[in-house]
Amino acid sequence: MSRKSIRFYNDREVRAVWDEDHSKWWFSATDVVRAINNEEDYVKAGNYWRWLKKKLNKEGVQLVSITHDFKFEAPDGKQRLADAMDADCVLTLSKNYPNNRAQAFLDWFTYSDNSIDGRSKKKAYTLVESGLLESMEPGTVKSLQQIHAYLFGGLYDFAGKIRTKTIWKDGTLFCRAEYLQENLRKIEEMPETTFDEIADKYVEMNVAHPFMEGNGRATRIWLDLIFKARLRLCVDWSKIDKKDYLEAMRMSTTDASDIKTLLRDAMTDKIDDREIFMKGIDYSYYYEEE
User: Fold this and answer.
1) Residue stretches of the chain with pLDDT short of 50
2) pLDDT tens digits along 171-214
3) Is 85 helix (H, G, I), strand (E, B) or coil?
């Protein structure tokens, strides 16, 4: 199965497929146009792309992959062959776009891969593919530290290190630093034999927020590790809306019912489906985008 990736521009999906032979990503041409135009309708975006492709071809601008063998999921859920562009072609398209809306997209496209999140996301892909997760002990603080260290090693000097400062985020005060180690010990000892127990443990770890940054991205992988080991299930994060997730997590400090509902409705037994985990990483990082 080809490695796939989803990036988000103004909440519009920009999907890509990895080309192992040439070591590069190919991006859905329709997705790129849809993102630039901020077009909700896939059909309209597809029509615009076909018109634009003909226009640029007449001007001598060749954009589309000559292989034409990359499949993307269509709105009806089926995998279909579609026009694809590599990174160089995306840059060329943006620079030759008929209006000025492409500049902001171009800035995002060229920046996102080199940002801390972009580089960390690549590490997350590698972590899943490496098999290292299988060697970690689910539900432990150590395994969460190992995940965090892998995701942010070389990017943050505190990668994998429990914070020693008290932090706030969006008005929420997380566990005070002087109580954090004891709190983490108690969380580690929490049972994890049922869905509710695992979800409660996840919520408590989120409230603890053991790292200075990168807690959500590391803890969601940690959560899936527990679900997979204890229940032979995992979360299909693509089924959880970003706004719903963020609001449910905000409310979970006093009432965890909403986040439990979202997680329960997104559970899948496809624990060996590589694409489920890769897509999960895409959405996990998407949740953190401002």
Assistant:
1) 1
2) 778 999 999 999 999 999 999 999 999 999 999 999 999 999 99
3) strand
CATH of 116-287, one of 3.40.50.300, 3.40.50.970, 1.10.10.60, 1.10.3290.10: 1.10.3290.10
Taking the CA of residue 183 as centre, how many other CA atoms within 13 Å lie in the half-sphere pointing to its CB? 18
Residue 211 carries which side chain, given as an amino acid letter? F
Query: Which pLDDT score is estimated for 112?
Result: 72
Are 96 and 53 spatial neighbours (Cβ–Cβ below 8 Å)? Answer: no
Which pLDDT score, from 0 to 100, does residue 66 have?
Answer: 55
Q: What are phi and psi of 16, to 5 degrees?
A: -145, 155
pLDDT of residue 115: 81
Cα–Cα distances in angstroms (integers) from residue 58 to residues 46, 51, 102, in the given order: 19, 11, 20
d(CA 193, CA 197): 6
**Taking a C-beta distance cutoff of 8 angstroms, is the pair 200, 259 a contact?**
no
User: Edge to edge, what strands does the sheet with 4-9 contain?
Assistant: 4-9, 12-19, 24-28, 84-86
pTM: 0.76
Per-residue model confidence (pLDDT) at position 191: 98
Q: Where are the beta strands (DSSP E) in the chain?
A: 4-9, 12-19, 24-28, 71-73, 79-81, 84-86, 168-169, 172-173, 234-235, 267-268
The pLDDT value recorded for residue 2 is 59
Instruction: Kindly list the domain boundaries of the chain, sorted by start residue.
Output: 4-112, 116-287
